[in-house]
Amino acid sequence: MTSGGRLPDPQADARHSLPERIGRLYFRVALPMVAASLLVGAVGATPASQRVIGGLVVLSLLTAALHFLLPIRLHDPLRRLFPLMTIAFVTVVAGLSGPGGLRGDALLLSIVLLLGPGTVLAWTLLFMDDARMGRLTGLGLTASATLLLWRWQQSGLQPTLTGNTPLLMLVVCLTVVLYGAAFTDINRRYADGERQRRRDPLTGLLNRRAFDEDSRASGPDRWALAVLDIDHFKRVNDTHGHTAGDRVLRGVADVILDVLAGRGQVYRWGGEEFAVLLPGLPGSDHTDLTVQAAALIEDIRAEVARRAFTGGQRVTLSAGLSLSAAGEPLQAAFERADSALRRAKTSGRDRVVLAPPPGRPPAPP
Questions:
Q1: 129: containing domain
Q2: Helix, strand, or coil here: 279?
Q3: Domain CATH code at residue 271
Q4: Can 272 be counted among the known catalytic residues?
Q5: Residues 242 and 213 in one domain
Q6: Which is the catalytic residue, given 20, 194, 213, 272?
Q7: Residue ranges of the chain with pLDDT lower than 70?
Q8: Nearest-CA neighbor of 61 among 41, 34, 80?
Q9: Is residue 52 part of a domain?
Q10: Are residues 22 and 156 in the same domain?
């Protein structure tokens, strides 16, 4: 669990997503630093070089400022637009270069040779969540930078640009694109493996491993834990078959998610058993959380009882609910909820039983 009363969620806030964090580093740190370096290098440069450098600086600082000022929902469009504007800028400079046009010099040559491969690599990281976009922008910059060097070669760049330099730029940038694509693919496979490791393949819910990992993280001061079990589930398997039982499990999981509507986290504990974590809202007290949690779990129970699953099958749920005590380990709260679940079963099933606080014996049925 995370601090501030929030539970870990695979659909994390956009502000804390990996692409957004990389984007902030690139646009708010790397681009201003590059722009500052270019400004220092432009001192004493030729007027033509200063115009090219000035264009790069304006493009970089304007994009960095927009990233600061725009709402987060517009960061992704900006992330995709900036490489296209950069490629267009380099292509325009290449078109203006050549015999009778813009002549490069040693300063511009060093900028292209340093920033070209470095930018291709940076864009690979910037688009780790979209490998295709990373490859396309990398190839686009590779082509435009190679064209620019070739045009400068035609104009007689001083110091003399050898015939191998544009080819070298092409080979180096293509190598960066290929290695970047391989790195992105490895990262994607690792992320997919991590998601699968924490997911139940049948229902798509988080699994017991995820529950154990989340329970070791810090969490809200108050939370509720419910353990839910499908009543007479073995009868469903014996009567209708395991395929029908799997459909019921998926259906019950969908009901739990629909009723919670993001207000808690759901885990498949194993078999026909589920666990639900409900965080306390900031400023809420123990009574508030008790009422809120009990109402939510009761809504889940009632909706499952009303729902006709595939083939007209109907099932019911029993649930045990416990509320956290100060400093209480999650496992202890789970044991109290599990004990309350057993009382719900022995009391007739299809009901929610609230566990007593730690140290207090349960009320007689």
A1: 14-197
A2: strand
A3: 3.30.70.270
A4: yes
A5: yes
A6: 272
A7: 1-17, 156-165, 187, 190-195, 217-221, 280-286, 326, 359-365
A8: 34
A9: yes
A10: yes
